[in-house]
């Protein structure tokens, strides 16, 4: 599936986005680096508040007040999206980079028909007649598996089920054949049997159209089945990055390990689930050092002091595997015991 | 968890032919024009000390069953027995005293706590209603309960908005266990929580079950979570239970095509795992107009002509393994003819 000569489609370097609130500065995205290649599905996984949504909204320059992208580079097809003009980024959105969101019903305008909304996307970017745009819309609805598309274009969003609405969102996102699709928790609000349909659809479309997809989710199962590579986020940073096989076969970061071990898996009998004690840190008052340290069993059980004093960097630990953790960086402790 | 070999375990709750229809009103005169058949005839029992999981997708009726058992919603017809007594026949006063034994934990930790009361007050509500102890004793029970759910005495004076989702859920659990009930309905207790907090709350529920000898009805849409915590699992589809079996038996030998499809649809965190994927076509239909015959037949990969004409019976196809499906029944029909029909 992956061409080894594949160049990167999008390269994000040291992205930092902060929210200036009354209570203080929230460092929502704090130095994020990653890249995605053509046709690749990159999973961005983490729990609420980890910064995954803020990261992709920053890429699309959709961060509003009181947020601000304070530094970094987002290079897409040789252009830094953070420095191009408003007109240029507007031109890109929906066209070369598209996005779909968690609650499809909230993303669709309730007072316009599906056909109107789909054609609008086309007509904003291409100089074509409404009739032709509608025809293209019908084609797309068929491609995403909506039955009776010629009738459906006259429907309003409230007449659609959650699964159908999400298919319409995908159609809207893909109508201009973008090279990159950002999907922010696209199936979280859907029933599991519908989720399976939608993920299947997204994989098919990736195969047919070569679209790269950044898939954001908190569901590790979805990642395992859909993504090629994964980045795990915690408190505004990427703590581990790997191919999906490497991540699940040999998770390095204690947070990743904790997450994988704490999920009940169908068919596996466990008396008790493993637990990550404590809560996600407050992003306003972050302590120095590793943000996961207060909850990290490895740190708490070891004699390492560096974890709470200094922030580790994201470093390569093998082919297609990097991790942000002192356990793997020359602290003199025995790193052969890597599972805590 | 219970010893499944000892199936003689006392029945705590028995549900028979439970039906709940919600009216749909329309027209100028607001007449009833249709019915939402939320629960369309279900039968099951819950044994003392066990966790019965109830799983299904949105609109299947699982939450309605939970609320109807407690009479938070009045049923349309059917019978629910708690320790042998029929609940629906009780007067308000008798029902109130029964409720001391039956509690509920809700899904939304944000909506289920009164924002104007310190959480300690919310936890003690049950104690006050059922006249348990004097002020000092209630305070002591409060402290003890907070400790049991992993919270501290300082939390009692704080308000709900000062807590995280996971903490509020612990408070909800504290409120349910404070009066030491026998039976708790857990209605999607972890669905709104982050993954790493879910496991904390699930472990807590399991620990409390052992400590306080509780029986649970665990309602959720996540089959992996339900299967982990339950002894037996009931799968619902559009108002009906389509399969009911001990959890390992269900996983190893799911008989109903919907259960099989549900299991194959669940994403598993093991890449490279080869699985047979059954992708169901079509949408989850509305309980307002369930399809005739077997409610699942329009989406069923193995439906026969007969399936749209008649509703299949809920039959014991294997020991303690109940299913309603003509495909399964056809195989077992002859040998099970004497057991045909509903659980007795």
What does this structure look like?
The complex is a heterodimer of chains A (340) and B (344). With 340 residues, chain A is an alpha/beta fold. Chain A is built from 13 helices and 12 strands. Chain A has an 8-stranded mixed beta sheet with strand order 6-7-8-3-9-10-12-11, sandwiched between helices. Chain A has a 4-stranded antiparallel beta sheet with strand order 2-1-4-5. In chain A, helix 4 (114-125) crosses helix 5. Chain A is globular. Chain A starts with 7 loop residues before the first strand and ends in a 17-residue tail after the last strand. By secondary structure, chain B is of the alpha/beta class. Helices cover 29% and strands 24% of the residues of chain B. The A-B interface holds A 47-48, 161, 163-164, 191-197, 199-200, 218-226, 244-245, 248, 258-260, 262-267, 269-270, 272-277, 279-280 and B 57-58, 164, 166, 194-200, 202-203, 206, 221-225, 227-229, 248, 251, 261-273, 277, 279-280, 283-284.
Brief overview:
The complex is a heterodimer of chains A (340) and B (344). By secondary structure, chain A is an alpha/beta fold.
Q: State Rg of chain A.
A: 21 Å
Distance between the termini of chain B: 24 Å
Strand content of chain B: 15-25%
- Give the helix level of chain A as a range of percent: 25-40%
Overall 3D geometry of chain B? Answer: globular
How much is the average pLDDT of chain A?
88
Q: Report the total helices of chain B.
A: 10
User: What is the count of DSSP helices of chain A, taking H or I runs of 4+ residues?
Assistant: 13
**Biggest β-sheet of chain A: count, sense, barrel?**
8 strands, mixed
Total DSSP E strands of chain B: 12
Order of helices and strands of chain A: EEEHEEHEHHHHHEHEHEEHHHHEE
